[in-house]
Design brief:
Layout (H helix, E strand, L loop, with lengths): L1 H13 L12 E11 L2 E12 L2 E6 L12 E11 L1 E6 L12 H6 L4 H17 L2 E6 L7 H11 L6 E4 L3 E3 L11 H4 L3 E3 L3 H13 L4 E5 L11 H13 L3 E6 L2 H10 L3 E4 L5 H9 L3 E3 L5 H11 L3 H20 L20 H6 L1 H7 L4 H8 L1 H6 L16 E4 L15 E4 L2 E2 L2
Parallel strand pairs: 1-4, 5-6, 6-7, 8-9, 10-11, 11-12, 12-13
Antiparallel strand pairs: 1-2, 2-3, 4-14, 14-15, 15-16
Length: 425
């Protein structure tokens, strides 16, 4: 009875009366003023034949499409480009302490209804800002992410496609405090003591339809680290179960362990040596640098009264990390990791996108920022057809009047968003 009641409650929490106000035919030709893909502009009018959610063909002349006998959607004021992808989101999490005490922040926002209401608004805002796919990496209770993913599959105007990992797998206290009860911690994480418990957690993740599992090499900002033996065994078991592995790792020891174990992505990463970067490139491990925008950093500094010396040291480390990644062949993918309070959840997408300002501040050029948001992120997630505009690719894209390769501010311009050929924003 309790299980049945819980299912009914969840269905009510996730019910959405959202509708798509845009009517788009299944077959049409889209006329644009240029294609931006793979970090480059193919200028001049282009005609993309969209058929059943795919880019069936791309033409350069209107005379070439006469035989198709379909409507032309004239968007000749717009450039077409792949939609943006955020590979590290927490749409169910809010930390009002600004990372001063994440455990306190989590405990204050663990009510399912509150979290679901916020998450719906946040994914709508992400879609509005051009994000067509997100990878939700835990801190979403007991698979609220899986339920929201199902909703976006049924109603594509609700938000981006959601790839999810379910609860992160870690040793006690995970990202809570030592004084917190295991009952509280286990509402948010899979807490394990040994390989057998870790394998059981991985099986639970797979049973919920996840494509990824999140392993905590370290629990920073809290205490606790996995042993190399435990971590490697779980990586191997996840791969055996055809799951990809995202590693939460801040310190250099955890980063080295994650790279040596052969994960698919290393998240955050405070320090990346040249040697570790070379090994990561050899193993095709992606870096997801979750660096908050300068505006957000200023808010955090003011809230937590952080010293300028600490900030300068962090900037130096992050610049060195990105330099070692780029110069040694490590691909990087965009990840916002945004979960701080904002006045309106409707601005969540813009706040997340502003992560690109940190990349620029750290020395990344517009082309590489574009690649991090599109092709690199899509390739990491195994969704390569979403990261390019080409024949045969999925017709999931955005239209913008300005070319973001020319000016960083243009990434924030108003967008038209299409998923599987249908306009949703």
């Amino acid at each position: 009875m309790l299980n049945k009641a819980y299912k009914i409650l969840m269905s009510l929490l996730f019910f959405c009366s959202c509708s798509n106000d845009f009517e788009t035919p299944k077959k049409y030709v889209l006329k644009v003023k240029g294609i931006i893909t793979n970090g480059a502009l193919a200028s001049g009018e282009k005609y993309l034949y969209i058929n059943n959610g795919k880019i069936a063909e791309i033409f350069s002349k209107e005379s070439e499409i006469k035989s198709l006998d379909v409507n032309i959607l004239d968007r000749s004021e717009f450039y077409i480009m792949p939609g943006f992808i955020d590979t590290h989101t927490h749409v169910f999490l809010t930390d009002h302490t600004y990372d001063e005490n994440l455990a306190v922040g989590m405990k204050a926002s663990m009510q399912d209804k509150q979290r679901v209401d916020k998450a719906k608004k946040r994914i709508s805002s992400l879609l509005e800002n051009g994000f067509v796919v997100i990878r939700e990496l835990g801190n979403s209770g007991r698979f609220l992410d899986a339920k929201l993913s199902l909703m976006t599959q049924k109603n594509k105007s609700l938000g981006p496609q959601i790839i999810y990992s379910g609860p992160g797998i870690c040793v006690f206290p995970c990202q809570f405090e030592e004084k917190d009860s295991s009952e509280i911690v286990e509402k948010e994480y899979f807490v394990i003591k040994n390989i057998a418990e870790g394998k059981k957690a991985i099986e639970s993740v797979k049973a919920q339809g996840a494509e990824w599992v999140k392993l905590y090499a370290d629990n920073i900002p809290s205490e606790g680290v996995m042993t190399p033996k435990l971590f490697k065994a779980l990586v191997e078991y996840a791969k055996k179960n055809k799951l990809k592995i995202a590693a939460h790792t801040i310190n250099k020891e955890g980063t080295r362990m994650a790279i040596e174990s052969g994960v698919n992505s290393i998240e955050h990463v405070e320090f990346l040596s040249k040697e570790d970067a070379i090994l990561a490139a050899k193993k095709n491990i992606y870096l997801v640098p979750t660096d908050h925008s300068p505006k957000t950093v200023i808010r955090v500094i003011e809230k937590r009264k952080i010293s300028q010396n600490y900030v300068d040291r962090q900037i130096k480390l992050k610049k060195e990390r990105l330099k070692n990644a780029f110069f040694n062949g490590v691909f990087s993918a965009f990840g916002s990791d945004y979960y701080f309070p904002i006045s309106h959840d409707s601005s969540f997408g813009k706040e997340s996108l502003e992560t690109i300002m940190s990349y620029a501040y750290l020395g990344v050029d517009n082309r590489n920022i574009f690649m991090m948001l599109t092709k690199n992120a899509a390739t990491l997630l195994g969704k390569s057809s979403l990261g390019e505009i080409r024949k045969g690719a999925n017709a999931t894209f955005i239209l913008m009047k300005k070319n973001p390769l020319e000016n960083l501010e243009y990434f924030f311009a108003k967008k038209q968003v299409y998923i599987d050929g249908a306009r949703v924003r």
